[in-house]
Amino acid sequence: MRSRFAALTLPGVLAACATAAPAPANYVVAYELTANFGAPFDSVKYDDGHGSLIKVNAPSSGWLVAVSVVTGGSVEAHAWGVASVGGQSVKLKATWTLSGVSSSSDSSGTTASAPGAFALDVAKRQL
């Protein structure tokens, strides 16, 4: 009787395991702009995790946004501005965190040697 019960339930368990697909992993992706001495940003574009770039005009230093992205989504960001004097440092950083597992990041930064335009880029990558 015991072996017949085991034989009847094993196929059911195997069938249930075979059809259950794991849920995609979720990432929290944070984009941040920083600058010293009030270096102004003209705009920033960031990936919403679905491949669309969202534009924000005139973000301030300390600007931060976070989006939820599933495995297979993407990370990408670009920022532009004009340094009014030499010595202004600017940075664009993207950090992606796999919930409860690990964090990674990529960034782009520069320090202006004289007044002038700057562009920062975090290259597109798939999670």
**Secondary-structure class:** mainly beta
CATH class: Mainly Beta
**Fraction of residues in helices?**
10-25%
Shape, principal axes of CA atoms: elongated
* Poorly predicted residue ranges: none
Tally the beta strands: 8
Give the distance, in angstroms, between the N- and C-terminal Cα atoms: 50 Å
CATH topology: Lipoxygenase-1
CATH structural architecture: Sandwich
Strand arrangement, major sheet:
4-1-6-7
What's the structural blueprint in terms of helices and strands?
Blueprint: H1 2-19, E1 26-35, E2 41-47, E3 53-57, E4 64-70, E5 74-83, E6 89-98, E7 102-111, E8 116-126
Structure description:
With 127 residues, this protein is mainly β. It has one domain (24-126): Lipoxygenase-1. Helices cover 14% and strands 55% of the residues. It has a four-stranded antiparallel β-sheet with strand order 4-1-6-7, with no helix packed on it. The chain has a four-stranded antiparallel β-sheet with strand order 3-2-5-8, with no helix packed on it. A hairpin with a 5-residue loop joins β2 and β3 (53-57). The mean pLDDT is 86.
Gist of the model:
This protein is mainly β and 127 residues long.
Short descriptors:
127 residues; mainly beta; Lipoxygenase-1; four-stranded antiparallel beta sheet; 1 helix; elongated
